[in-house]
């Protein structure tokens, strides 16, 4: 019988690519999503779809009674700035939603593995020098990052105290087809749309701020590996946490210039005042993901940006 996977947020950007990857590997895939930002048409043919909120009793019942081997929890309020404006709303989805599912895992007759989508950007803050290693201090500078860290703590606790098999994937800045301009690598989607409109690419500050851009298909492959990999024993916070990125820092100017080159478009680059509180440097070490999952990112920034631009340029109904 095929292994069964539940992907929360599977109608969104990353979750829908995980659904593709797991279907390719012979999983039976169920997607749970409230469609607040996700789109029904992102859910691949072959996956079952359930429309529900992760905070609901319906979602808990599905986790408890669905007979899943693995739950990949991608559903979230993903907008860092929204989390600053309304931290209560952010915590309601990002902490209480996850807790609702974790309690359902605890109550399930057959307990699925729980893989949690955390962040390798927002969680470490600005006090560390990249590339960030999993054991680095965590000082998130936003309610969004705090909520991710809180769920990681819950997951470590559920592992130690209740024996739940959990893994944390701390994504760097994920970009690719179907991405949402409000996410942590939203700049790629924004620049693609500006290039298509012939509008200038706006760079905030001096454009020297760096991020670690990882292609969504590489992130999906890491999730597929985590679904079945042998995990280390549950211990402290970072024991079962892995960064998922490339280890390469790219500054915004280089990103804009590379996108211009691969797109063949010629928008100008314009400068706007720096945004207060914006992180200066970010990139993650990928050694642990390689070691535990046998995973390495396969796509170069250049080829990944080309594929992303082509997606945004293609006509859609
Ligand atoms: N995109 C990035 O660069 C990045 C980086 C680090 C971590 N992450 C994390 O990866 C995960 C996926 O992010 P994404 O970029 O694909 O975002 P996304 O917005 O495309 O996907 C999130 C999905 O969750 C759904 N959702 C939101 N609230 C829900 C709720 N209460 N109940 C059920 N479904 C709900 C949305 O409809 C959407 O389909 C998130 O947990 C995010 O925090 C993303």
List the helices and strands and how they pair.
Elements lengths: L3 E5 L4 H12 L3 E6 L14 E4 L5 H9 L4 E4 L6 H6 L1 H21 L5 E7 L23 H20 L3 E6 L1 E3 L10 H12 L3 E4 L5 E2 L1 E3 H13 L12 E4 L5 E2 H12 L5 E4 L14 H7 L7 H13 L4
Parallel strand pairs: 1-2, 1-4, 2-3, 4-5, 5-6, 6-11, 7-10, 8-13
Antiparallel strand pairs: 9-12
Helix pairs in contact: 1-7, 2-4, 4-5, 6-8, 6-10, 8-10
The structure holds nicotinamide-adenine-dinucleotide.
How would you sum up this structure, described in words?
- The protein has 317 residues and is of the alpha/beta class.
- The protein folds into 2 domains: 201 residues, NAD(P)-binding Rossmann-like Domain (Rossmann fold, 3-Layer(aba) Sandwich); 91 residues, UDP-galactose 4-epimerase, domain 1, CATH 3.90.25.10.
- 39% of the residues lie in helices and 17% in strands.
- The chain is built from 10 helices and 13 strands.
- The strands form 4 sheets. A 7-stranded parallel beta sheet has the order 3-2-1-4-5-6-11, sandwiched between helices. A two-stranded parallel ribbon has the order 7-10.
- Bound molecules: nicotinamide-adenine-dinucleotide.
């Amino acid at each position: 019988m095929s292994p069964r996977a539940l992907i929360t947020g599977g109608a969104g950007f990353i979750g829908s690519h995980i659904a593709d990857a797991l279907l390719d590997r012979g999983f039976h895939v169920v997607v749970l999503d409230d469609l607040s930002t996700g789109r029904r048409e992102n859910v691949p043919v072959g996956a079952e779809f359930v429309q529900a909120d992760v905070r609901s009793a319906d979602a808990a019942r599905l986790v408890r009674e669905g007979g899943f081997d693995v739950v990949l929890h991608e559903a979230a309020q993903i907008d860092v700035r929204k989390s600053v404006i309304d931290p209560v709303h952010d915590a309601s989805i990002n902490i209480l939603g996850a807790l609702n599912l974790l309690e359902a895992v605890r109550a399930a007759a057959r307990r699925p593995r729980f893989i949690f989508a955390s962040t390798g950007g927002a969680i470490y803050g600005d006090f560390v020098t990249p590339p960030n290693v999993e054991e680095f201090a965590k000082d998130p500078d936003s309610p969004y990052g705090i909520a991710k860290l809180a769920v990681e703590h819950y997951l470590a606790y559920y592992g130690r105290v209740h024996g739940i098999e959990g893994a944390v994937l701390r994504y760097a800045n994920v970009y690719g087809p179907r991405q949402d301009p409000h996410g942590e690598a939203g700049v790629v989607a924004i620049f693609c749309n500006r290039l298509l409109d012939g509008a200038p690419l706006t760079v905030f500050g001096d454009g020297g701020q760096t991020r670690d851009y990882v292609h969504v298909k590489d992130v999906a492959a890491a999730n597929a590996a985590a679904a079945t990999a042998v995990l280390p024993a549950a211990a402290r916070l970072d024991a079962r946490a892995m960064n998922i990125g490339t280890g390469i820092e790219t500054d915004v100017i280089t990103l804009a210039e590379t996108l211009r080159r691969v797109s063949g478009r010629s928008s100008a680059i314009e400068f706007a005042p720096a945004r207060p509180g914006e992180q200066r440097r970010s990139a993650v070490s990928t050694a642990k993901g390689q070691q535990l999952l046998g995973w390495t990112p396969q796509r170069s920034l250049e080829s990944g940006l080309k594929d992303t631009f082509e997606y945004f340029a293609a006509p859609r109904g």
